[in-house]
Amino acid sequence: MPSGSPTGTSPWAALQGVPAARVMPVGGPVSGTVTVPGSKSVTNRALILAAAAAGESRLSGVLRSDDSYWCLDALERLGLTVAVDGTDVAIGGQAGRFPHRQGELFIGSAGTIARFLPGVLAAAPDGMWRVSASDQLSARPVAPLFDALATLGARIQTRVRAGAYPADIAGGGLNGGSVTLSGALSSQFISGVLMAAPLAAGPVTLTVPDEIVQADYVRITLDTMAAFGAEIGVEDGFHRFTTAPTGYRGRPYTVEADASTSTYFMALAAVTGGTVTIDNIGTETRQPDIRFADILERMGAVVARRPGAITVTGPPRLKGGFTVSLRPLSDATLTLAAIAPFADGPITVTEVAHIRMHESDRIAVAVAGLTRMGIRAEERPDGLTVHPGTPRFAELETHDDHRVAMAFALTGLAGAGVRLLEPGCVSKTCPVFFDLLAGLGVPVDLSGTG
């Protein structure tokens, strides 16, 4: 296996060798301004499309995280020219061809790359690559994607377990034609087929017979594809997509900030009664997690929205006593669960069963963590219910899940504190998370001994 680790830690990881982070109570409102890093979702879409494009692409605002590191590492191993300068990346695309026609690629725990790269490799005119992943990602099924790509002519052979990584992916090109794929499990499967489709020999029609989980991310995929020159038709209320065999063209591209990361700082203001401005994302984004601000308004927060910024001011006490579907923005489930104990009534989250198959079983992990902190919380098949309470100090496993670490940091700072084991997992999407907290005045001990 190429250089990597079973956990997917990269040289860009934060807190290497730090066994624990202790987040201590703030004891009052937290206020300030924060600039969040680039979007993981948009970064990885743009990197893959730039790699498949004809000519050079210059990307700015790229997220420097474990996921993007392993994506860039894979592109270099495919023989493409990659130049990184901070958050600027230049990629020399060769119109869907890769100079290194065989080799091993390691993608860490990057679920987006696991979904976006296979179709692009299969669409190459020739080549054979073995793609491996972290232990965590290798346990997550990708069979629906592999089966859909096989319908278009892809040759993918899994090595250990059917429908999971590691896998051997052969080039040879994709055919045009029709393929049907459920959207109920992951929008990333839909995006993976769509991103490969313009590289096929003829038009591709993708039919989705049911509703797409987090359909907004498919819209982000379509926007990014169009920016790189693809032509996509959308029909039947987002159930039918037709792509022309245009390929992609290299271009300059700016990655917007990450709305999912911004939810933690919105929640920080709401749960402490402070005022926090995220100064680099606002109403112009398609990312669904920006709508977490709507839920905070329902909980009594005051929200000011602008095209390039969003400001949240928390109430004296959060309001609860409601049920909410987070299906469109399920990445915010843990954020809401983390601050729900501080509301004046129970909060129930529904329609997020699919997050049981993310980096961890996020429903079970959320309930177990809250229970350990003395909060009554109950699992539902498709979500959870969290009751009001006073969280006590606890030491919690992060399960190599960035969202677990960032969410429970909120519970700790608003409660009696928390000690988070293996905090470096935040490097998947926000390596600077604890630095940003400290910059807002939150007491954070990264010595590993606290």
Features:
450 residues; alpha/beta; UDP-n-acetylglucosamine1-carboxyvinyl-transferase, Chain; 2 domains; 24 strands; 30% helix
Describe this entry's structure for a reader.
With 450 residues, this protein is of the alpha/beta class. The chain folds into 2 domains: 20-37 and 257-445, UDP-n-acetylglucosamine1-carboxyvinyl-transferase, Chain (Alpha-beta prism); 40-254, UDP-n-acetylglucosamine1-carboxyvinyl-transferase, Chain. 30% of the residues lie in helices and 23% in strands. The protein has 13 helices and 24 strands. The strands form 6 sheets. A 4-stranded mixed beta sheet has the order 22-23-1-24, covered by helices on one side. A 4-stranded mixed beta sheet has the order 2-15-17-16, with helices on one face. Helix 12 (402-414) links the parallel strand 22 and strand 23 (418-421). Helix 3 packs parallel to helix 6 (187-196). The longest helix has 14 residues, at 259-272. It is globular, with a radius of gyration of 21 Å. The two termini are 36 Å apart.
Mean pLDDT: 96
Query: What best-fitting shape do the alpha-carbon axes yield?
Result: globular
Q: Given the structure, what is the number of helices?
A: 13
| Named CATH architecture of the largest domain | Alpha-beta prism
CATH classification class of the largest domain: Alpha Beta
Beta-strand share of residues: 15-25%
Number of spatially distinct domains: 2
How far the N terminus sits from the C terminus, by CA atoms, comes to 36 Å
CATH topology assignment of the largest domain: UDP-n-acetylglucosamine1-carboxyvinyl-transferase, Chain
Question: What structural class results from the helix and strand content?
Answer: alpha/beta
- Total beta strand runs: 24
- At the fourth CATH level, what is the homologous superfamily of the largest domain? Enolpyruvate transferase domain
Helical residues, percent: 25-40%
The biggest sheet amounts to:
4 strands, mixed
Identify low-pLDDT runs: none
Instruction: Give the C-alpha Rg.
Output: 21 Å
- The spatial strand order of the largest sheet comes to 22-23-1-24
